[in-house]
């Protein structure tokens, strides 16, 4: 009886905040309702047929893969680099750490607006300096620049979060191991590659899972404020399309079907990560 | 002593709630902030001060899309406001939601408020009226696109600022001159789909969609891939390639560039007038939206953008009485004339237009009469009375994407418009299925 009681809070939370809404989404994905909920038609898998018949929806998968991949690599790579540097600092590391953690407190939509101001094609300060260098910045028409901008804005706040975990991970590595390697004549890079990185792998793996989920679900505020999915459909990722079809288009049936697709995709990806990537993690 | 104070406090609080109960509260959800929000709040205060039975409470719920969403979500939860501001592209959605709204003509009749739908400007009213002539929502802010000219930019480029810009052919010549003089932004626009496709269609009397642009039924299909629209978009695309048309974004991002004096010509809503007047440190002028010379029937008339007020279902008769009185108050000439003169939005009643004219406002502010003239100089045709399309906010998104492909040189205008029509029709069929 006691084990059940101890499990109960977690079970209730999972049921209320995950199973119930996920079940609702699955149920709604089989209907085409009118926006006001006055009437609703059962269409079975009609919403899914409609979605996968749309080549722009299929293209959003590739966009999402590119976007999530870039956000994960950029935010984790930068965070690891900064964490390694901060770990080696002897004086003033507290100040660096505090400053590096600040951006995490900025909401995605606000981060989006900040970056948009800096890169505004006409009044943005960065765009202006680029203009002085002879580079014509125009993310409202150039697809690669738009993608770069939303990736930068989405990764920025995330660097802080990843930095915290990497720094903690680095500090947990016993100094004696590293010192022993140094005495054996291993240079910094060799020590990092053969000792530090493998010992850091539990942290890296955790961050990989968390960052991919972040890039999939929490970035639509950034995309909404900076590009609205444009130019053309260059930055329309799956979760932004859920938002756009549901909240702009009031097409709740399609929106629900898309959430179900997202749920399946992220679920499958997490399973793959735990099955294949985790094997290479040393705890 | 303590008990006495408590008793007093209790009594006074009861008196307070008592008075609050005597006044029926009317909720109005709207999408305005800044100067427009201020003017709106002023209207509400004026109404509240003018009578003691009702108190209108205005609440800002975000931009147009967000306000509509908030209203829909609230309706599903049974907590809808009495009055909801809905932008014109949401009109078809609201019209299809028969059980969720109460038509304005019915509100007025039930409330016993005198209401003559002929007092409202035809070109504005038509957008929100059934084919039988019943007004479903009350027009609130309505504007139409016009051409803003930076006269100083013309002089600096050695062009005559008074040159004729009534046709796109002449605008093309001006752009050539500006470009030759090294101008970095000869032309920019706001709301590209609204100005350069929707209004271009009605202005040239060609259909934007079949079935009278959707007024004739939900089985309408898009038709803006015709020769007139394609020619215009292709020309704009060529101008974009040559650096004569600068694309700034999907909404009104171009406005900042024009007001800063960077752009010479700017196609934007007549409601942009207040902002330009306030910020522009150069000599500017409002001109009629250009048309293509040689197209039969052009210029016909332009159509409105903006919002109207919808009355939501599920409230008591007394509350609807207050709603009726408030809507009638908003339609009075004084309120409308002030709104028109301060914002650049059209006056919604003919009386307000006459009053503005009589006050000599147009002579003192040349160009402010152009929007009204564009709308009213010809009786609207089946192609030009407005648009009534489901999922139109999303269809505009598709049009934005396809236009960006033209501006970037990735697609020809014909390819882009064919693709937009095809993709938009899929959404229209889905809307028909959900609401039919």
Description:
The complex is a heterodimer of chains A (283) and B (436). Chain A has 283 residues and is mainly alpha-helical. The two termini of chain A are 32 Å apart. Chain A is globular, with a radius of gyration of 23 Å. In chain A, strand 1 (31-33) and strand 2 form a beta hairpin. Chain A has 13 helices and two strands. The longest helix of chain A is centred in the N-terminal third of the chain and has 34 residues, at 55-88. With 436 residues, chain B is an alpha/beta fold. In chain B, strand 1, helix 2 and strand 2 form a beta-alpha-beta unit. Helix content of chain B is 50%, strand content 12%. In chain B, helix 5 (104-111) packs across helix 14 (317-330), helix 15 packs across helix 16 (350-358) and helix 19 packs antiparallel against helix 20 (413-435). The A-B interface holds A 32-38, 41, 50, 54, 56, 121-123, 140-143, 228-233, 244-245, 247-251, 253-254 and B 65, 68-69, 72, 75-76, 93, 96-100, 247-250, 253, 256-257, 260, 262, 391, 393-394, 397, 400-402, 404-405, 407-408, 410, 423, 426-427, 430, 433-435.
Helix and strand pattern of chain A:
HEEHHHHHHHHHHHH
Strand residues, percent of chain B:
5-15%
**Number of helical regions of chain A:** 13
For the largest beta sheet of chain A, what order do the strands appear in spatially?
1-2
Q: What are the low-pLDDT stretches of chain A, counting only 5+ consecutive residues below 50?
A: none
Average residue pLDDT of chain A = 92
Work out the radius of gyration of chain B.
24 Å
Q: Between the first and last Cα atoms of chain B, what is the distance in angstroms? A: 69 Å
Binned, the helix content of chain B reads: 40-55%
User: What's the alpha carbon Rg of chain A, rounded to whole Å?
Assistant: 23 Å
Strand content of chain A: under 5%
- CATH-defined superfamily of chain A: MetI-like
Q: Could you tell me how far the N terminus lies from the C terminus of chain A, measured between alpha carbons in angstroms?
A: 32 Å
* CATH homology-level superfamily of the largest domain in chain B: Periplasmic binding protein-like II
State the helical fraction of chain A: over 70%
């Amino acid at each position: 009886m006691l084990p059940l009681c101890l499990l109960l809070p977690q079970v209730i939370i999972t049921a209320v905040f995950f199973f119930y809404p996920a079940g609702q989404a699955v149920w709604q994905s089989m209907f085409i309702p009118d926006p006001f909920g006055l009437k609703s038609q059962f269409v079975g898998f009609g919403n899914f047929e409609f979605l996968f018949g749309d080549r722009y929806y299929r293209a959003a998968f590739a966009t999402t893969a590119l976007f999530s991949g870039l956000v994960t690599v950029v935010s984790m790579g930068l965070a690891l680099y900064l964490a390694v540097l901060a770990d080696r600092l002897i004086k003033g590391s507290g100040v660096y750490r505090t400053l590096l953690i600040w951006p995490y407190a900025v909401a995605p939509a606000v981060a989006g607006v900040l970056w948009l101001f800096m890169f505004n094609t006409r009044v943005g300060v960065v765009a202006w300096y680029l203009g002085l260098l002879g580079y014509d910045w125009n993310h409202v028409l150039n697809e690669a620049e738009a993608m770069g901008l939303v990736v930068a804005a989405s990764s920025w706040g995330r660097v802080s979060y990843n930095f915290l975990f990497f720094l903690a991970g680095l500090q947990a590595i016993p100094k004696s191991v590293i010192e022993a390697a140094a005495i054996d004549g291993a240079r910094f890079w060799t020590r990092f590659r053969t000792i530090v990185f493998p010992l850091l792998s539990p942290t890296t793996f955790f961050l990989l899972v968390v960052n991919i989920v972040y890039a999939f679900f929490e970035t639509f505020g950034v995309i909404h404020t900076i590009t609205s999915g444009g130019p053309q459909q260059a930055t329309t990722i799956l979760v932004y399309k859920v938002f756009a079809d549901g909240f702009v288009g009031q097409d709740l049936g399609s929106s629900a079907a898309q959430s179900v697709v997202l749920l399946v995709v992220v679920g499958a990806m997490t399973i793959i990560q735990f099955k294949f990537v985790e094997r290479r993690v040393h705890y | 002593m303590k008990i006495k104070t408590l008793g007093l406090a209790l009594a006074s609080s009861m008196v307070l709630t008592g008075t609050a109960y005597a006044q029926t509260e009317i909720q109005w959800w709207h999408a305005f902030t800044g100067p427009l929000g201020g003017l709106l709040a002023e209207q509400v205060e004026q109404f509240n001060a003018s009578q003691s039975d009702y108190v209108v409470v205005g609440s800002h719920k975000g931009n147009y899309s967000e306000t509509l969403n908030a209203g829909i979500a609230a309706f599903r939860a049974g907590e809808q406001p009495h009055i909801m501001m809905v932008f014109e592209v949401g009109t078809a959605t609201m019209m299809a939601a028969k059980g969720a709204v109460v038509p304005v003509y019915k509100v007025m009749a039930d409330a016993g408020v005198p209401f003559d739908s002929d007092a409202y400007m035809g070109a504005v009213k038509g957008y929100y009226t059934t084919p039988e002539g019943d007004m479903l929502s009350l027009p609130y802010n309505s504007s139409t696109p016009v051409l803003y000219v930076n006269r100083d930019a013309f002089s600096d480029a050695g062009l005559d600022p008074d040159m004729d810009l009534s046709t796109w052919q002449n605008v093309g010549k001006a752009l050539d001159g500006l470009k030759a003089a090294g101008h970095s932004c000869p032309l920019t626009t706001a709301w590209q789909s609204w100005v350069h496709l929707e209004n271009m269609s009605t202005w040239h009397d060609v259909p934007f969609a079949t079935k009278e642009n959707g007024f004739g039924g939900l089985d309408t299909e898009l038709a803006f891939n015709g020769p007139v629209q394609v020619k215009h978009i292709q020309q704009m695309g060529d101008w974009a390639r040559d650096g004569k048309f600068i694309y700034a974004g999907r909404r009104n991002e171009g406005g900042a560039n024009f007001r800063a004096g960077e752009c010479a010509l700017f196609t934007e809503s007549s409601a942009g007038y207040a902002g330009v007047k306030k910020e522009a440190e150069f000599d500017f002028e409002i001109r009629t939206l250009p048309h293509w010379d040689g197209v039969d029937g052009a210029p016909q008339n332009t159509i409105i953008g903006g919002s109207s007020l919808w009355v939501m279902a599920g409230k008591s008769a007394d509350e609807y009485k207050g709603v009726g009185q408030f809507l009638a108050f908003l339609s009075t000439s004084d309120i409308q004339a002030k709104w028109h003169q301060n914002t650049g939005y059209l006056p919604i009643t003919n009386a307000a237009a006459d009053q503005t004219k009589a006050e000599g406002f147009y002579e003192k502010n040349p160009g402010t009469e152009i929007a009204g003239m564009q709308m009213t100089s010809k009786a609207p045709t089946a192609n030009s009375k407005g648009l009534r399309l489901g999922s139109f906010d999303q269809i505009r998104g598709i049009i934005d994407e396809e236009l960006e492909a033209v501006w970037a040189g990735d697609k020809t205008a014909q390819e882009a418009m064919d693709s937009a029509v095809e993709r938009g029709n899929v959404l229209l069929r889905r809307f028909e299925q959900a609401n039919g």
